[in-house]
Automatic annotation (TrEMBL):
It comes from Streptomyces collinus. This is Pimeloyl-ACP methyl ester carboxylesterase. It comes from the Bacteria. It holds the Pfam family Abhydrolase_1. SUPFAM superfamilies: alpha/beta-Hydrolases. Residues 40-273 form the AB hydrolase-1 domain. PANTHER family: AB HYDROLASE-1 DOMAIN-CONTAINING PROTEIN, HYDROLASE, ALPHA/BETA FOLD FAMILY PROTEIN.
Length: 287
């Protein structure tokens, strides 16, 4: 049984309650905030991420003007079921989730793996998707994407040895500015103290890694099928999904637009530069 949005919707991600909706017998957990009217913006998360991995400055900033929905896909965090090991299956689950909420039109913001999922949805369900924001992501078969697994494992081990969160290495540069941005971001993720989401399970993490590896090894997709307006954003020094993929993605999308790559920033560029990203995203999403 779904828990429909209430009115007025919460104004802060820190206090937004967890809700749930049943999708073909599987419970999907989500949070919704922002105004009640307008095309909803669905946020599609990155590798290993749950609800509490979205930067509250990005979510709150977007929700100041747009209805925003953040969710755990199948098998992730508080959602039930088993995590698929292909991007295409994750995309199908996402479509079912969006429709279970009663939406027949939505905008998508996909970060990293979420950007892979968003591309598939936009191509396969053109009537559902109005606009796309693709951050820290790339096209199928893009250079370096098949190396995400080895890079992630290496930096997880490095994080254990240095007693630091691996995202400090995976999402940010090693410069003084990058380290400051990483610490600020990680502190923001701790602002919510009540009703936090469950961490991803090891089996789900492995399934996601397998899906990303397959995406990186696929033949290049025909991006001409994606006719929706698309804003592409990234840091200039993305180690996980090399920044050249963002440039290539924007160039190959018929209505792609590349946001200038954020300086001294990596995979978490939209978090590090949230003060620039949020107003640009809101401007792009205007009707």
């Amino acid at each position: 049984m779904s828990t429909p949005p209430t009115s007025p919707a919460p104004a802060s991600y820190k206090t937004t309650p967890n809700r749930s909706v049943s999708v073909r017998g599987v419970t999907f957990v989500y949070r919704r905030l922002g105004p009640d009217d307008g095309v909803p913006l669905i946020l599609l998360n990155h590798l290993s991420a749950v609800l509490d991995n979205w930067d509250p400055r990005v979510v709150d900033g977007l929700a100041a003007r747009r209805p925003v929905v953040v969710f755990d896909n199948r098998g992730v965090g508080g959602s039930g079921g088993s995590t698929p090991d292909t991007i295409e299956a994750m995309a199908r689950d996402t479509v079912l989730f969006i429709r279970a909420l009663g939406y027949d039109r939505a905008d998508l913001l996909g970060l990293s793996m979420g950007g892979f999922i968003a591309q598939v949805i936009a191509a396969e369900e053109p009537g559902l998707v109005r606009k796309l924001i693709l951050a820290g992501t790339g096209p199928a078969g893009g250079p370096g994407i098949d190396k995400v697994t080895s890079l992630t494992v290496k930096d997880i081990i490095k994080g254990v040895l240095t007693r630091k969160d691996p995202k400090e290495y995976l999402f940010f540069t090693g410069t003084e500015g990058g380290r400051r941005a990483a610490h600020a971001f990680l502190n923001r993720l701790k602002e919510r103290t009540d009703d936090r989401d469950k961490a991803i399970s090891l089996s789900s993490f492995r399934a996601q890694l397998k899906a990303i590896h397959r995406w990186g090894r696929q033949a290049p997709a025909d991006l001409s099928r994606i006719r929706q307006p698309a804003l592409v954003a990234n840091g200039e020094s993305d180690r996980m999904v090399p920044s050249v993929n963002s440039v290539d993605l924007a160039a190959r999308l018929p209505h792609g637009e590349l946001e200038p790559l954020y300086p001294d920033a990596g995979h978490g560029g939209i978090f590090q530069h949230h003060d620039s990203f949020v107003p640009r995203a809101l401007e792009f999403l205007e009707p």
